[in-house]
Write a structure and sequence with these properties.
By secondary structure, the protein is of the alpha/beta class. It folds into 2 domains: about 1-125 and about 230-330, Periplasmic binding protein-like II (D-Maltodextrin-Binding Protein, domain 2); about 130-225, D-Maltodextrin-Binding Protein, domain 2. The chain is built from 14 helices and 12 strands. The chain has helices at about 1-15, 60-65, 85-95, 105-110, 155-165, 180-185, 200-205, 215-225, 240-245, 250-265, 270-275, 285-290, 305-315, 325-330, and strands at about 35-40, 45-50, 75-80, 100-105, 115-125, 130, 145-150, 170-175, 190-195, 210-215, 235-240, 300. It has a 7-stranded mixed β-sheet with strand order 1-3-2-4-11-5-12, sandwiched between helices. Strands 8-7-9-6-10 form a 5-stranded mixed β-sheet. Helix 1 (about 1-15) crosses helix 6 (about 180-185), helix 2 (about 60-65) packs across helix 10 and helix 5 crosses helix 8 (about 215-225).
Length: about 325
């Protein structure tokens, strides 16, 4: 019962999110890792890193770089876990912090509003899946003309699918209501949903007969005739560091890329590098299960500018940045 209660609390936190600035992670949660310090070299700058206790692949390369790589030979880290999306968005816009984990489109929008931020790296590429208890209906096309529940509210997977699935009978996407959506699946009140990892793994562990179906990023890649991925989330850096500590951003990026390559070869190490304080919400078992469908990849933001532009044009149809505006937000 305690394990089930814990899973439901994780489920409620994940599904309570609104995709505003940082939609991969929930807007309300405890702060298990606030006050965590990594490195104690007085001759190095100490960077404040704002993150979420429930993020998996987007931040694993940083933890690997800190615990098994050489990141701490360049800086110390003070970790802060945000409490609400408004709180985090306010921190970014005010320039409070040095490194932030969040959605790519959130950082781009913040930078265009004058925030002292540049997107450093994209670290989340595959997240969204159809899950269903009906193994004969594991494709999004099976739900055309029907209602399909999804979570969290504001998921970028919805505009992506709407742009892909051209039909006279479009899917009616219905946002989930936190824990209620998870409970509806568990009780069989609904048979399918569109959800991200690690929620996919949580639900497959708890809902009897739940199958994992089509992947949104694969569909997106097929339509664009490109790789099966989307530049969903990543790490951003405060612009002051570019002048106060020349070369530091490049060094951090280099360590992240090395860590990403190592984790891609041995994803099982991902669960081992997650700080113990974060296992309160995302257990090592959940990380391991999630990585079977997720992808660990670190790309310099500027090197995937064309992918970012195509992605942002779809999910921000009325506010998509121009090429020049986008380039100005990327490191």
């Amino acid at each position: 019962m305690k394990r089930l209660t814990r899973i439901l609390l994780i489920t409620a936190a994940l599904f309570s999110g609104h995709y505003l600035l940082f939609p991969i992670t929930p807007p309300v949660q405890a702060a298990p890792a606030s006050g965590l310090h990594l490195g104690n070299n007085p001759d190095l700058p100490t960077l404040t890193f704002y993150t979420s206790g429930l993020a998996t692949t987007p931040q694993l390369p940083l933890w690997y770089a800190a615990r098994k790589g050489n990141l701490l030979s360049h800086c110390n880290l003070e970790v802060k876990v945000w409490k609400t999306i408004d709180d985090l968005r306010g921190n970014v816009l005010a320039g409070k912090g040095d490194l932030w984990l969040g959605q790519t489109h959130g950082f781009v929008q913040a930078a265009r509003r004058g925030a002292p931020v540049k997107l450093l790296a994209v670290t989340a590429w595959r997240k969204f899946y159809l899950v269903s208890t009906d193994e004969t209906r594991l494709h999004f096309a099976d739900y055309q003309g029907e209602t399909l529940s999804y979570a969290p509210t504001g998921s970028p997977a919805v505009p992506i699918l709407q742009s892909i699935l051209k039909s006279d009978r479009p899917i009616r996407f219905k946002p989930g209501q936190g824990r209620q959506l998870a409970m509806l699946l568990m009780k069989g009140k609904i048979t399918a949903a569109l959800v991200p990892e690690p929620m996919v793994s949580i639900l497959t562990m708890k809902v009897p007969g739940l199958k994992v179906g089509e992947n949104v990023e694969t569909l997106y890649g097929n339509v664009r005739q490109s790789k099966p991925r989307m530049p969903i989330a990543g790490l951003a850096i405060h612009t002051k560091l570019l002048t106060q500590h020349p070369g530091l951003a490049e060094a951090i990026l280099d360590e992240l890329k090395k860590a990403g390559e190592a984790l891609a070869q041995h994803p099982e190490d991902g669960a081992a590098v997650l700080p113990e304080a974060f296992t309160r919400f995302v257990t090592p078992e959940l990380v391991t299960a999630s990585l079977k469908r997720d992808a660990i990849l670190v790309e310099r933001a500027r090197e995937v500018q064309s992918e970012l532009k195509a992605y942002l044009d779809v999910i921000l149809p009325d506010h998509a940045p121009s090429e020049a505006d986008l380039e100005a937000t990327l490191f």
